[in-house]
Amino acid sequence: MLSFVVSIIVLVVGYFIYGKIVEGIFGPDENSLTPAKRLEDGVDYVEMDEKKTFLIQFLNIAGTGPIFGAVAGAMWGPAAFIWIVFGCIFAGAVHDYLIGMMSLRKDGASVAELVGENLGDKAKQLMRVFSVVLLILVGVVFVTSPAAILHDLVKSVPTIAFVGLIIIYYLIATVLPIDKVIGKIYPIFGICLLIMAVGIGVGIIVQGYQIPEITFQNYHPKGVSIFPYLCISIACGAISGFHATQSPMMARCLGNEKQGRRVFYGAMIAEGIVALIWAAAAMSFFGGTEGLGEALGQGGAAVVVNKISNSVLGKVGGALAILGVVACPITSGDTAFRSARLTIADAINYKQGPIVNRFIVAIPLFVVGVALCFIDFNILWRYFSWSNQTLATIALWAAAKYLINHDKNYYIALIPSIFMTVVVTSYIIIAPEGFVRFFKGVPTDTVELIGTVVGIIVALICTIAFIKTSKKGVKYAPMHS
To answer: Where are the transmembrane segments (predicted)?
Structure first.
């Protein structure tokens, strides 16, 4: 239990110390007019209260990510604590803050435009496609999973009916002004998600569940290696590329640049705390990782969340569990489609003021999304996981380039960029959805070693290219269109 408590303390201290360092390096200007003030349009550019933007950002980037991902990552035991803490402070929160603030400086531009601004036009075109595909995948994942759970609760209603209802809601939330639906209900759900996590955390401690301490042991029942699998399994609680698509939405709603650390960096730290709590609950509630593995085999993370919530919190926990596995995924799904709409609109410079224009962009996205709803969920999720972390890696490289081009300490972004490059490269080589098929007959340990070596080589190549193409000493004008 000591490791768990210390991990939470370290996350909080990280916000106040390292978050302040990152903020100081970027240098927010409290006197600068934000996009919400300069470009107010009553649709996407709407100034909102700081507490509200924090809760919306938290719910946008969280949903069930820090719950389901942490439950999956708990299969490796307390090593998950290490990845969540260090990943969150030094990678995820830095990633979210820098992308959010870079977007703020460029009129709330989407991550694809930010990548293009710093890594070149080819990278921008790639990122446009990559981010839209990822966002549609997120939207689809968060249609099918809550629809299936709702069907289990109300078996008289077919799953397809729930899919239809969720899609209709997504379309409405995607095109309406951000303060009409998202601005009103998201803060409430954000508070509920935090209350749910705190309740579970207090409950497992008070009720005496044995949370294992951090050791150098791999607790995975099947002996699956910690690296890079753990870094892919726990994304939202440590670092997630999906966040880079969400931060620009709130960049269009902040009233002051000084709010950035609390909204962007702070929301990621809050998500890390939620992930820590659920990882601890998952690895202790079932008496160890073998018991957790059996529970996951009976219906996945949703079943685990439901069992823990009902047992630890009783009837209140049951209600919160439904919120966690149904409402929260839906709140991530609709902002995914909204972000996809904004990304496409930015790419073609298509004004989103008129509601007709919003429907013109949104409807084709939903046609593709509906078609993908009929593909096996597990296949979608596997490709989403790798794509998500790859997008985060590219975003970090863009952030590092932005910092070096503005004569700022770029190591805060460069170091996690290098690490994540190793992660995503080695994973795609050894994963079932990657290139492992080319290593038939080769021992697993050897394949993993090859993957790690190739990952390091690719990271070195990227680092050399980064240094060679960076313009040191060049001070750019503030990023406003």
So the answer is: 6-26, 54-74, 80-99, 129-150, 156-178, 185-206, 226-242, 263-286, 358-380, 411-429, 449-467
Q: Is 449 helix (H, G, I), strand (E, B) or coil?
A: helix
Distance, in Å, from the CA atom of 102 to the CA atom of 478, rounded to the nearest integer, reads 10
Residue type for 446, please? T
C-alpha 258/C-alpha 131 separation (Å) is: 27
**Token pair for 203:** 């409950």
- Mean pLDDT, the chain, rounded, equals 88
In contact, 253 and 180? CB cutoff 8 Å: no
How many helices, marked H, and strands, marked E, lie in the chain? 21, 0
Q: Which residue, among 390, 412, 392, has the nearest Cα to 402 in the 3D structure?
A: 412
Residue 473 has pLDDT above 50, yes or no: no
DSSP state letters, 302-370? HHHHHHHHHHHHHHHHHHHHHIIIIIHHHHHHHHHHHHHHHHHHHHHT---SSHHHHHHHHHHHHHHHH
Q: How far apart are CA 138 and CA 268, in angstroms?
A: 18
Structure tokens at 127: 């990122």
Best-predicted range by mean pLDDT (155-159, 248-252, 381-385): 248-252
Cα–Cα–Cα angle for 478, 480, 481, rounded to 5 degrees? 145
List the one residue out of 385, 387, 389, 396 whose CA is nearest residue 95: 396
Task: Set out the domains of the chain in order of their start, with CATH numbers.
Answer: 1-378 (1.20.1740.10)
Q: Supply the angle between the helices 111-119 and 377-405 in degrees, to the nearest 10.
A: 50
Say yes or no to pLDDT of 161 above 50. Answer: yes
pTM for this entry: 0.89
In order of 58, 111, 141, 280, the CA distances from 250 in angstroms are 10, 13, 23, 31
Give CA torsion, residues 430, 84, 91, 345, to 10 deg: 80
| 202, 5 Cβ separation under 8 angstroms | no
Cβ neighbors of 146 (< 8 A, separation 6 or more) are 162, 166, 325, 326, 327, 329, 330, 333
Q: Which tokens in the block code for residue 17? A: 């110390």
Closest residue by Cα to residue 15 from 268, 198, 326, 233: 268
Distance (Å, whole) CA 29 – CA 177: 27
DSSP at 324: I
